[in-house]
C-alpha cells in the first residue's frame, strides 16, 4: 500500500543520500552536470533527466555497465582517488607549448618525502613524456619556470580547493602563461613511492600529461585514465593511446621533416629538367639527379653541392650551350651561371625576356640547341624566345593546346634532348596517358626509374 511505498522511498533516500550527494558532486565536477536550482532541487534530484544521462556518460567513460543507476560498481569507481580535472571536456588542440625545452620548478615538497627523492621521481616521470615527443624538460631553481609544481592543502587560491585525504589527488593546468602548465598535488594524501598510499610517480606522470595539454582517456591502460588505477610496484608506462594523444599535439602538428624525393616514386613530378652538356639533370626540391649516357646509375645530390649560388625548389632551368651558360628560374627572377658561378648582377627579372608584367613566373623551359630557340611554358600559354636576337618571337604567346596538341597544361618541367622532347606534367592521378616514360627513350637499362609523370614527344 501507500505506506510500504513511502517506507521504500524513505529507505531509498536514507540509503543513498550521502553518496547521492557525493555522486552528484562527482558528476558536477567531472562531467559538467548542472542540477536544477532552488525549490525544485530536492525533487529534481532523483527525477532530473540530467542525472541518469550524466551518470551513463560517466559509466561509459569508465567502461561500466551503462545502467544510469548508482550501482555498486559505479559507487566503487566514484570513491577511487582520482585527478581533479574533468573527464567531459576535451581540451583544444591549440593548448600546447610552442617551446621545445620546458622548465619546471618545485615550490615546495610533500611533508613525508625527501626532496631529493621527489626530484628523482619527477625527473623519471618527465622522461616518459620526453621519450615520445621532441620535448626536453629542465628543472629550474628560479621562479620563472613554465611548470610550477606544488603541494597544497584545501583551498590554495585557484578556485579548485583540495578535499583532504582521498578523493581528488592532484590537478594540473593546460599549457599557457602564468598558472598554465602548473601542477598541484593534494598535500594531505599519503604520497609514497613504495607499497602503501598513492604512488607519486603514477600521479605525476598523469598530471604532467595535462601540463602538456593531454586530456583524460577512457582507456583503462592509459596513464591519462582519470582514476588512480595502479597497484604498488606496477610498471608504469605510457599506453598506445597516451603516446598517440601527446604525439597529436607535439609530433603530428609539426611540419614534417623534409623528405628526400624517391626517384622510383610513381607520383614523382619534377620542378625542372635540363640538359647539362652530355647529361640530363632532373631537379626536385633541394635535390637533383644527374644522368649521363655512360652511366646507368643515377645519383641524387643536393643542388647546392654543384651550384652554390642558386635557389632550391626551382621553377625551370635550361642550358644555353652556345655560351655555356645555365639559366635557372624561380619566381620572377632568373640566374645565369657560368663555370658553376652565378654571373655578376644576377638574379635579374624575367621581364628581360620580354614577358609582360602579368607573367610572375615560368613553369618550364625547353631549349633547342640546334635552333637557338627557347620555349617557355606559363600556365596554358607557351612562348618562343630567339636566343640569337635575344627577343620573343612574333606571334607568341600561343595556347599550349594549339602548339603542343595533346600535352596537358600547366607543365611541371620539360627538356629537349637530342631528338626527343620530354615534358613532365603534374601527376594528377587521373592521367594514365603519362605512363609513357620519357626515360625509356633515354636510358633503357633497368633498374632505372625516374617517376612516371614524364611524356615522350618526338620533335621533328
Ligand atoms: Ca584529496
Ligand atoms: Ca606556469
Ligand atoms: Ca617547374
Ligand atoms: Zn587528470
Ligand atoms: Zn590547484
Automatic annotation (TrEMBL):
SMART domains of this UniProt entry? HX, ZnMc
Where along this sequence does the record place binding of Ca(2+) 1? 189
One BP term from GO? proteolysis
Binding residues annotated for Ca(2+) 2, in chain numbering: 146, 180, 182
Q: What is the lineage of its organism?
A: Eukaryota, Metazoa, Chordata, Craniata, Vertebrata
> Which residue positions are annotated as catalytic?
207
| Cellular location(s) | Secreted, Extracellular space, Extracellular matrix
What GO CC annotations are associated with the protein? Answer: extracellular matrix; extracellular space
The family assignment reads:
Belongs to the peptidase M10A family.
Per UniProt, what is one GO molecular function of this protein? zinc ion binding
Q: Where does Zn(2+) 1 bind?
A: 156, 158, 171, 184
Q: Which residues form the signal peptide?
A: 1-25
| Organism from which the protein derives | Astyanax mexicanus
Q: Which residues bind Ca(2+) 5?
A: 317
Q: What is this protein called?
A: Collagenase 3
> Which residues does Ca(2+) 3 bind?
163-164, 186, 189
Q: Which InterPro entries match?
A: Hemopexin-like_dom, Hemopexin-like_dom_sf, Hemopexin-like_repeat, Hemopexin_CS, M10A_MMP, MetalloPept_cat_dom_sf, Pept_M10_metallopeptidase, Pept_M10A
- CDD domains assigned to the protein according to its UniProt record, in alphabetical order: HX, ZnMc_MMP
Amino acid at each position: 500500500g501507500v505506506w510500504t511505498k513511502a517506507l521504500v522511498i524513505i529507505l531509498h533516500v536514507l540509503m543513498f543520500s550521502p553518496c547521492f550527494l557525493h555522486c552528484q558532486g562527482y558528476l558536477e565536477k567531472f562531467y559538467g552536470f548542472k542540477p536544477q536550482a532552488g525549490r525544485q532541487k530536492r525533487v529534481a534530484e532523483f527525477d532530473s533527466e540530467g542525472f541518469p544521462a550524466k551518470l551513463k556518460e560517466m559509466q561509459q567513460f569508465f567502461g561500466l555497465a551503462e545502467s544510469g543507476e548508482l550501482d555498486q560498481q559505479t559507487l566503487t569507481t566514484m570513491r577511487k582517488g582520482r585527478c581533479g580535472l574533468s573527464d567531459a571536456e576535451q581540451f583544444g588542440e591549440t593548448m600546447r607549448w610552442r617551446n621545445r625545452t620546458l622548465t619546471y620548478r618545485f615550490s615546495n615538497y610533500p611533508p613525508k618525502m625527501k626532496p631529493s627523492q621527489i626530484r628523482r621521481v619527477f625527473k623519471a616521470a618527465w622522461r616518459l613524456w620526453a621519450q615520445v615527443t621532441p620535448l626536453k624538460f629542465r628543472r629550474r631553481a628560479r621562479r620563472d619556470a613554465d611548470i610550477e609544481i606544488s603541494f597544497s592543502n584545501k583551498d590554495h587560491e585557484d578556485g579548485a580547493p583540495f578535499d583532504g585525504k582521498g578523493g581528488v589527488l592532484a590537478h594540473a593546468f593546460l599549457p599557457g602563461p602564468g598558472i598554465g602548465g602548473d601542477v598541484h598535488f593534494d598535500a594531505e594524501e599519503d604520497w609514497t613511492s613504495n607499497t602503501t598510499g598513492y604512488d607519486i610517480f603514477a600521479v605525476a606522470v598523469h598530471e604532467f600529461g595535462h601540463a602538456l595539454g593531454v586530456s583524460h582517456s577512457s582507456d583503462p591502460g592509459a596513464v591519462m585514465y582519470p582514476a588512480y588505477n595502479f597497484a604498488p610496484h606496477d610498471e608504469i608506462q605510457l599506453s598506445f593511446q597516451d603516446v598517440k594523444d601527446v604525439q597529436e599535439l607535439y609530433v603530428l602538428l609539426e611540419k614534417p621533416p623534409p623528405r628526400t624525393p624517391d626517384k622510383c616514386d610513381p607520383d614523382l613530378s619534377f620542378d625542372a629538367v635540363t640538359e647539362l652538356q652530355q647529361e640530363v639533370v632532373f631537379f626536385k626540391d633541394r635535390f637533383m639527379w644527374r644522368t649521363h649516357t655512360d652511366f646507368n646509375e643515377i645519383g641524387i645530390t643536393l643542388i647546392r653541392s654543384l651550384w652554390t649560388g642558386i635557389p632550391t625548389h626551382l621553377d625551370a632551368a635550361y642550358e644555353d650551350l652556345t655560351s655555356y651558360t645555365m639559366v635557372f628560374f624561380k619566381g620572377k627572377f632568373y640566374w645565369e651561371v657560368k663555370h658553376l658561378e652565378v654571373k655578376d648582377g644576377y638574379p635579374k627579372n624575367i621581364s628581360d625576356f620580354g614577358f609582360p608584367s602579368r607573367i610572375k613566373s615560368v613553369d618550364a623551359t625547353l631549349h633547342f640547341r640546334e635552333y637557338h630557340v627557347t620555349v617557355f611554358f606559363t600556365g596554358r600559354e607557351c612562348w618562343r624566345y630567339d636566343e640569337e636576337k635575344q627577343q620573343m618571337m612574333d606571334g607568341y604567346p600561343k595556347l599550349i593546346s594549339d602548339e603542343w596538341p595533346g600535352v596537358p597544361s600547366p607543365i611541371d618541367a620539360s627538356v629537349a634532348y637530342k631528338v626527343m622532347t620530354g615534358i613532365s606534367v603534374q601527376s594528377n592521378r587521373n592521367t594514365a596517358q603519362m605512363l609513357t616514360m620519357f626515360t625509356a627513350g633515354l636510358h633503357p637499362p633497368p633498374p632505372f626509374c625516374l617517376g612516371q609523370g614524364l611524356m615522350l614527344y618526338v620533335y621533328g
